Amino acid sequence: MADVIKVADSSEMTLETVRDSLIREEDTIIFSLIERAKYPINVGAYDKTKTAIPECSDSLVEFIIKETEAAHAKCGRYENPEEHPFFPDDLPTSLVPAFNFPKILHPAAASINVNSTLWEVYFAQLLPLITVPGDDGNYASTAVSDLACLQALSRRIHYGKFVAEVKFKESPQEYEPAIRSQDRDALMKLLTFESVEERVKRRVAKKTMLFGQEVSLNDNCDEKKLKIDPAVVSRLYEEWVMPLTKLVEVEYLLRRLD
Question: What is the pLDDT at residue 5?
Answer without folding.
Answer: 29
